[in-house]
Structure formats: C-alpha cells, structure tokens
C-alpha cells in the first residue's frame, strides 16, 4: 500500500476529537486510509442496503452493536445517525470514537454542521499526490522560494504519462488501463453521486457539460458562455458547477483582490482535480496525444494547482491560494498568501527555461515597487535555477 500523507494527521487527531470525518471524491482512497490507520476498529458501509435500512429504522441499536470504535463508510447516506452519534460522544467524552467517510461533501458537511460542530476533525482526501506516488517528501510550501539544491530522492518519471494516467489509487493498485477505468468512473459518478445530490434527469447533457468545463480548465470562468455552449440556463450551470465542486471533481480558484491601481478580473478560474479525468473528458487517448495537444499547457497548469491543493489538504490546512489578473490580461497563475506576504507563482509547461517565461512575475514585481520580491516559476524542465532573484523550480519538486 502507498502511504498517504494524511495518515499521521489522522492518528494524531484521533487522540483529541471524538469524531473524525474523511471526505473527498469517490475512489480517492478514503476507506482504505481509514481502515489502514484504524485497523483495530470495526467497519460498516452504508452503501450496503441492509446496513442502511437498519441504520434508518433503528439508529440507536445500529450504533450500539458496534461499540467501542467504529468506521462508518458513506455516512451521509443515513443522516438520522448524526444526532445519535452526537449523543454518544457527548455522553462518553472519549476521543477517536467514530471515523466517518463520505463522497458527498455538501451532504456530509451539512449534517456535521447541524449535529457535530466542535466535536469533529475534518479531513479532505484527494487522489494520490505526485510525492505520495514517488514515496518522497512533499514540497515545503513555506520554504520553496529558498531552495538551493534538488533533493536526491525526488523522482521524475514520464511527466505526460503521469498526467494522462491521473492519480486515482485504484488505477495504480490494480494496474488498470486508465481511460477504461475513468470511463466507468465517470458513468458511476453521474449515475450514483450526481443523482443523489440533485435530481438530474438529462444525464447526457450533464456529461456534455462536464466536457465543456474540461475545455475551460485553467481559464477564467464565464458562466454565461458555458451555459450557452451547453444549451442550459446560467442558473442551471451555476447549480451544476456547485455539484462538481462539492464532489471534488473541480476546484474554483478565486482571484486575489489586492488592487495595484488596476481594475481586477473578479471571476474565478476553473480547474479539475485530476488530470486523468480531465484528459478523458477532452478525449485525449494517449500520453503522446497529450504531449501534442494544444491543451498541454492548461493540463500542466491544472496539475500544478492540484498538487498545491493536495499539499494543503494533506497538512489539514485550507488552501490559501488565489490567482491574479488585471483588465489588461496581465496575470499571475497562482498567488499564495503566507501571512503578510504574497508569493506569486508562474506555471509554464515548457521544458526549456528562458526569461520570456517570467514576464508575468516581473510585471508583478514592478507593481509592488519591490524588484527583489520573491517569486517562483514552476516549469516542465528538470533543473533548479535562480534567475534575477526568482526561484525556477522543475516539476519534479512537487
């Protein structure tokens, strides 16, 4: 089993909180992680109709038969349980009593907010990070602009094969053909998860909507244009985007509003959380096709943004991330807030570094009136460089 970075955080939190919740997209490894870290716990899945039926009809009896410690998989399927769990943990006052997992962040969090607020530690688990797959330490976000040498254990591999395959654990555990598995995953997601969250009758239109979203990954989101292309209303488009975001299929990156005497773009950018699923929706059928694709740069950027999101989630921190763009289309792909300091990060898929790749970072520096303001470029090459005070990081560092 590939060790997940959240493992230690989960074990630590189980000594402090009576309830732990692991949420994330379907098939991201939530159940495997919970059963690995808490191997001595009893386990029950509410995906099984018999278990769900008993939990609904007799929630008190259902929970009592699994004392003392229990993992409840897909807990959001029986919301009636949450009030009874609250009563148990308030009475027992013992850490690590329940581990809850769920693929529907909106439904799960709604019940936690109503019943378990202040009693529950919440974790988000996305598919594998590159560091997890490589068995290496993740990038230290707080120190990444001061790196001077490449760590010996950092592994690269084939960048485009990795992006094409994506990062869902089952593909690696079972050595599956990624595009075949992702096709089944997509159909299962729409049929089971989407219909549970919202009663969508036209599955074909929703799948087409996901394809139009994929074509916009890494771009400013124009909801009116997206709705028009898909033949739906803007209201429906907003609703469907919310479904994709709450089930961790996409992430909307918000703009940073600091105004350098410029009018800023205020719409978010859309990113998929897995590049394999993104390639599938874009009908990219091989890593060679990806390498030649006009979407190559957007897919590389999508992957970089996703790695930063995973880095934050795996440390149980909310991503303090934005992008910046003004009305003249001057843009910084990623801005990370580190207390009082903003760190601009450019992302380029080019394998060869040249000073043209840092134009946006240079523009940012000029606006701050600090020619030595720290900044980072993450690119598709393999050398760690320092150029004009900027740190040039190869993709292998993520």
Shape: globular
Number of domains: 2
What structural class results from the helix and strand content? alpha/beta
Count of DSSP E strands?
14
Please give the radius of gyration in angstroms.
Answer: 22 Å
Keywords:
398 residues, alpha/beta, Rossmann fold, 2 domains, 6-stranded mixed sheet, 5-stranded parallel sheet
Structural notes for this entry:
The protein has 398 residues and is an alpha/beta fold. The chain has two domains: 7-124, P-loop containing nucleotide triphosphate hydrolases (Rossmann fold), CATH 3.40.50.300; 130-397, no CATH class. 41% of the residues lie in helices and 17% in strands. The protein has helices at residues 7-13, 30-37, 49-57, 59-64, 81-92, 105-115, 130-134, 159-165, 169-173, 178-197, 203-214, 223-230, 234-246, 275-281, 287-292, 296-313, 359-368; strands at 19-23, 42-45, 70-73, 98-102, 120-124, 219-220, 250-253, 269-272, 321-325, 331-338, 341-348, 376-379, 385-387, 390-394. It has a six-stranded mixed beta sheet. The chain has a five-stranded parallel beta sheet with strand order 2-3-4-1-5, with helices on both faces. β9 and β10 form a beta hairpin. The chain is globular, with a radius of gyration of 22 Å. The model has no long low-confidence stretch (mean pLDDT 90).
Task: Give the SSE layout.
Blueprint: H1 7-13, E1 19-23, H2 30-37, E2 42-45, H3 49-57, H4 59-64, E3 70-73, H5 81-92, E4 98-102, H6 105-115, E5 120-124, H7 130-134, H8 159-165, H9 169-173, H10 178-197, H11 203-214, E6 219-220, H12 223-230, H13 234-246, E7 250-253, E8 269-272, H14 275-281, H15 287-292, H16 296-313, E9 321-325, E10 331-338, E11 341-348, H17 359-368, E12 376-379, E13 385-387, E14 390-394
Parallel strand pairs: 1-4, 1-5, 2-3, 3-4, 11-12, 12-14
Antiparallel strand pairs: 6-8, 7-8, 9-10, 10-11, 13-14
Helix pairs in contact: 1-2, 8-14, 11-12, 12-13
